[in-house]
Amino acid sequence: MRVHTLYPTCASMPQCHRSHSKPRPVTRPTVLHRRPNMRIRVVPVLGTQPAMFGQAAAAHVLTTLGRKPFRPHTVEPVSRSFSAKQCDRLKTREKRIFHNAPAPTTPGSSDAAPYTPVADCNEAAYVIESLWNSKSAFSDIRIDSRKVFELTRFDRSKPALPYNLIFVTREEAAAHDADTAATGSLPRRLLDPPVPSTDGIDASPTSADSGKHVPSTARLRSVHALLLHEATQWQRDTTEP
């Protein structure tokens, strides 16, 4: 990436003198700018700009060497209240559909129900912003629409952690949970072999064939691949010292 920085210097400005004598008139106006139709004297003198670019380049190198590359936000961050609401909906969904809730702390009780950890509010915000760009993982509907969004498991057999969460509309979440309930893990179309066709093209059903709120097989495979990559990064971050 090439970044152009513009800042004036005495060498490029004949009107800049070390003495207090009256400046001489400039006979060649073209020497006062670096680009056509832009005078360099109107550009503010910001000596910190080159330093900022140097710090950004150094940060990029350090994060790359540390195998934790910097990924800037491509969308506006969601508010803290929105991520907290999604976190509460996720916990409610875990309890109601997956029967995953912490056992009540009753004195003397030893038979606690199995409980798997659930993503917290910060992890929910990361999933919404960084993984799914504040839009549905299945239909690309943005959160500024009138739809109600929820987080749910992609693979029913894995915990509700960032590497296994999808951000979809409430109708898409219900359809997806019904699909994974029949298999106990991934959606059926990811487990069944592709349907062969005479021309060699994958003839698996699309969203139009399966239902209004069901994504296409290609979209399911894309989401699955992204979450597998995220799971690899998650395992690397948790195992490395």
List the helices and strands and how they pair.
Blueprint: H1 48-65, H2 80-96, H3 121-131, E1 149-153, E2 165-169, H4 170-183, H5 188-191, H6 207-210, H7 217-239
Antiparallel strand pairs: 1-2
Given the helix and strand composition, which structural class is it? mainly alpha
Q: Over all CA atoms, what is the radius of gyration?
A: 28 Å
Name the helicity range: 25-40%
SS field, number of helical segments? 7
Topology order in helix (H) and strand (E) letters: HHHEEHHHH
Order of the strands making up the biggest sheet: 1-2
Enumerate the spans where pLDDT stays under 50 for 5 or more consecutive residues. 6-19, 197-203, 205-210
| Major pleated sheet | 2 strands, antiparallel
Mean pLDDT: 77
The separation of the N and C termini measures 32 Å
Number of E-type strands: 2
Quaternary structure: single chain
Strand-residue fraction? under 5%
**What is the molecular shape?**
globular
Short characterization:
The protein is mainly alpha-helical and 241 residues long. Helices cover 38% and strands 4% of the residues. Strands 1-2 form a two-stranded antiparallel ribbon.
Architecture overview:
The chain has 241 residues and is mainly alpha-helical. The protein contains seven helices and two strands. Strands 1-2 form a two-stranded antiparallel ribbon. Helix 2 (80-96) crosses helix 3 (121-131). It starts with 47 loop residues before the first helix and ends with a helix. Residues 6-19, 197-203 and 205-210 have low confidence and may be disordered.
